[in-house]
């Protein structure tokens, strides 16, 4: 009989987890205070902050999509999303439609219910989302110990926690990892199915957790293998649970108002590479973006390159499985997210919150993490100062001042680091569990730590 202990992250005590959540609460409070600088002190007839709302939002670097979208999406009118709306030929949304998946639309509606100004909407939305940020800290602490301070004390949490509606979807992704690796009383298939449900809910919030379903299914396929065959049924069950959850979340809105439901997807499909997208496609091809042919090409090139990066990540993960005996689904998921962030047409600043938990869950070198956080900080501040210079008609070229220079350092530094992180994630070990559950002597024969 062979007895082998599985190496896991050092567990935090309850007091440690509470301290972690307190640090996170402090970061969230600072994040709210930063965004609230843009609110008031006066309000116009629509509840929009005055004076000079847009100039302050960009110039003082306190812009948030939450406050900005108070006017223009019928949020201020408390219209229930999707049911009565649609999209105009020019791409304008109307009738309560927002450009996000359905569960985020519901969160937006709930956050606006008792608000009559953009300041109230920001405050209520922050109260609604803060518990998700605290939950992420708790789960990351349970998964990876004090490394979770990377979430609790990070600049991105202060900058972006209440920039958009991203904390709930990050919570779904982290909860999925937690269920797989810490819900030890259930079988792997049950844990993975529950995680797939969470990823399906994440799809109905912001889409990106759907990327992680394939690595999770491959993990179940290989971890459930015995001496003769893979666990195909378990893998299909994972995929089916994720798809079924996403469908169930969307079907009520499809039935209540198909045109409004479809409009949110139509809006994103029509979105062009422009000044608002902040992706490498804009900064690398700024002078081409006015040509229709370029925009049409990007609608094909960007998705194809993303799919290629996903395939490469999954294939490398399979090679690692053949060497170690366990499919590295967390690391593959992190690499796939890097491919998405790098190659998608849109790279909004708050997307860093999606990547941040993987700095906790995967043991990449600290240099990668520090460099990325510095590049992201440079981009996250300078992009809004650059918008302000653009709005004010002031010189904003690369030779005109530090704002543009810092922006280019942030944009291209972050892009280069995403390429490096794609490789680094695939080579690193998980801080959650080096090898996953050990089930049989068959699984033990080839397991060894990955340097």
UniProtKB/TrEMBL annotation:
<feature type="transmembrane region" description="Helical">
    <location>
        <begin position="121"/>
        <end position="140"/>
    </location>
</feature>
<protein>
    <recommendedName>
        <fullName>Mannosyltransferase (PIG-M)</fullName>
    </recommendedName>
</protein>
<feature type="transmembrane region" description="Helical">
    <location>
        <begin position="355"/>
        <end position="387"/>
    </location>
</feature>
<keyword id="KW-0472">Membrane</keyword>
<keyword id="KW-0808">Transferase</keyword>
<feature type="transmembrane region" description="Helical">
    <location>
        <begin position="192"/>
        <end position="221"/>
    </location>
</feature>
<comment type="similarity">
    <text>Belongs to the glycosyltransferase 87 family.</text>
</comment>
<keyword id="KW-1133">Transmembrane helix</keyword>
<feature type="transmembrane region" description="Helical">
    <location>
        <begin position="300"/>
        <end position="321"/>
    </location>
</feature>
<dbReference type="GO" id="GO:0016758">
    <property type="term" value="F:hexosyltransferase activity"/>
</dbReference>
<keyword id="KW-0812">Transmembrane</keyword>
<feature type="transmembrane region" description="Helical">
    <location>
        <begin position="93"/>
        <end position="114"/>
    </location>
</feature>
<keyword id="KW-1003">Cell membrane</keyword>
<feature type="transmembrane region" description="Helical">
    <location>
        <begin position="327"/>
        <end position="343"/>
    </location>
</feature>
<feature type="transmembrane region" description="Helical">
    <location>
        <begin position="241"/>
        <end position="263"/>
    </location>
</feature>
<feature type="transmembrane region" description="Helical">
    <location>
        <begin position="160"/>
        <end position="180"/>
    </location>
</feature>
<dbReference type="Pfam" id="PF09594">
    <property type="entry name" value="GT87"/>
</dbReference>
<dbReference type="InterPro" id="IPR018584">
    <property type="entry name" value="GT87"/>
</dbReference>
<feature type="transmembrane region" description="Helical">
    <location>
        <begin position="12"/>
        <end position="33"/>
    </location>
</feature>
<dbReference type="InterPro" id="IPR016570">
    <property type="entry name" value="UCP010361"/>
</dbReference>
<feature type="transmembrane region" description="Helical">
    <location>
        <begin position="407"/>
        <end position="428"/>
    </location>
</feature>
<dbReference type="GO" id="GO:0005886">
    <property type="term" value="C:plasma membrane"/>
</dbReference>
């Amino acid at each position: 009989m062979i007895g082998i202990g599985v190496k896991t992250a050092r567990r935090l005590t309850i007091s440690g987890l509470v301290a972690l959540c307190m640090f996170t609460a402090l970061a969230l409070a600072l994040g709210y205070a930063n965004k609230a600088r843009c609110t008031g002190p006066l309000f116009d007839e629509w509840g929009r902050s005055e004076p000079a709302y847009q100039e302050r939002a960009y110039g003082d670097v306190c812009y948030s999509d939450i406050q900005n979208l108070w006017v223009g999406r019928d949020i201020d009118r408390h219209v229930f999303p999707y049911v009565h709306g649609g999209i105009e030929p020019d791409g304008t949304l109307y009738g309560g439609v927002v450009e996000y998946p359905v569960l985020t639309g519901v969160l937006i509606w709930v956050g606006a219910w008792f608000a009559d100004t953009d300041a109230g909407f920001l405050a209520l939305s922050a109260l609604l989302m803060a518990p998700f940020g605290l939950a992420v800290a708790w789960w990351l602490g349970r998964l990876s110990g004090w490394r979770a301070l990377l979430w609790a004390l990070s600049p991105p949490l202060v900058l972006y926690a209440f920039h958009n509606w991203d904390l709930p979807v990050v919570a779904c992704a982290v909860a999925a990892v937690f269920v797989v690796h810490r819900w030890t009383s259930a079988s792997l298939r049950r844990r993975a199915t529950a995680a797939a449900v969470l990823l399906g809910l994440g799809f109905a919030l912001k889409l990106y957790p759907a990327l992680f379903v394939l690595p999770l299914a491959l993990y179940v396929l290989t971890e459930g293998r015995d001496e003769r065959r893979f666990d195909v049924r378990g893998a299909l069950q994972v995929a089916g649970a994720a798809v079924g959850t996403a469908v169930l979340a969307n079907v009520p809105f499809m039935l209540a108002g198909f045109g409004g439901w479809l409009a949110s997807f139509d809006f994103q499909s029509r979105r062009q590479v422009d000044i608002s997208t902040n992706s490498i496609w804009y900064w690398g091809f700024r002078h081409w973006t006015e040509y229709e042919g370029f925009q049409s090409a990007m609608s094909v090139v960007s998705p194809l390159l993303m799919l290629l990066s996903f395939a490469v990540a999954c294939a490398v993960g399979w090679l690692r499985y053949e060497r170690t005996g366990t499919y590295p689904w967390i690391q593959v998921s992190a690499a796939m997210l890097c491919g998405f962030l790098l190659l998608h047409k849109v790279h909004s600043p708050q997307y860093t919150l999606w990547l941040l938990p993987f700095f906790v869950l995967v043991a990449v070198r600290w240099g990668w993490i520090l460099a990325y956080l510095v590049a992201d900080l440079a981009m996250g501040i300078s992009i809004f100062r650059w918008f302000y210079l653009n709005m004010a008609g002031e010189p904003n070229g690369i030779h005109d001042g530090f704002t543009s220079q810092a922006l280019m350092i942030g944009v291209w530094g972050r892009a280069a680091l995403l390429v490096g992180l794609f490789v680094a994630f695939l080579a690193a070990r998980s801080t959650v569990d080096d090898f996953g559950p050990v089930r049989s002597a068959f699984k033990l024969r080839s397991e060894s730590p990955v340097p």
